């Protein structure tokens, strides 16, 4: 069986995993191996980000003009009907100003992966980790399965989980994540049947049962996702096409945007819960991005946090390998502080919607408003 020896092994080749690898390859002398289960050919929902994304990319030695015309496009129209049925600028929901941008996740993720390989990292797509062995000396032996080339091993000094909200490595190692809600997204991709390209737009719209996210995508496509709680989905069977379409038909602002289009495939269901995973008890191991902290999509903190936390984790891992644990300690402290701030910001978003105080979805968010200040994510 083939064996590869490296300093740091990263499971997950999305924005967090590739950002961690690029940080190590740019700012340290560490050798890096990344395994990604997909072939970077999955359709991904676009991400809404602000201009801070460019500062993060510049830290990884990726100039802003690299994405001119591809991957990152300025979002010219971003609106929300949140707290009333009147459309307002989405920035007023966040009480922030400045330009916003829409990521083409397929181009963005593929570009970062290509950068890892171009800078000397080893990235294996279509590769799953089958087993993680933590050796007595603190090092790791990882058994991997490539889709067509079979099994091989990686021997690493440090292991990082960048597998997203599912935190697959953490689960494999028996590290439970603490969930703070049961938010779930039920979405579908829509294809415009009209000749004109749909207006580039992002829209949020609340209903008694939850809230909708809509965005345009390349190729006359759109995505519409309904966010609610998983038990409500099961109770009302909202994942079924007819029921999902009825919810969509009840919207005021979203429905006109998707007229003249058709959905392809059944609605998909994805977890969107808030979660924190504490990895401080395992030596030479960290989680980054959604594997460490998973945020409610209303916060728009996903990609930016994935990249920034991955860079912090990468530098902490490098320090650990040099015999300095200060970076690891600082990383966990910052995660707890970041999560506490997020809970308060999340509560303020949901507090803005007061029209459905007796609806189960909104009752739960109102109840949690008073709880967030006392939550200790480190407990």
From TrEMBL:
Gene3D superfamilies in UniProt: 3.30.9.100, FAD/NAD(P)-binding domain
Top-level taxonomic group: Bacteria
Domain FAD-binding intervals: 6-344
InterPro entries the record matches: FAD-bd, FAD/NAD-bd_sf, Flavin-dep_Halogenase_NPB
Record's protein name: Lysine-epsilon-oxidase maturase LodB
Species classification: Bacteria, Pseudomonadati, Bacteroidota, Chitinophagia, Chitinophagales
Encoding gene per record: lodB
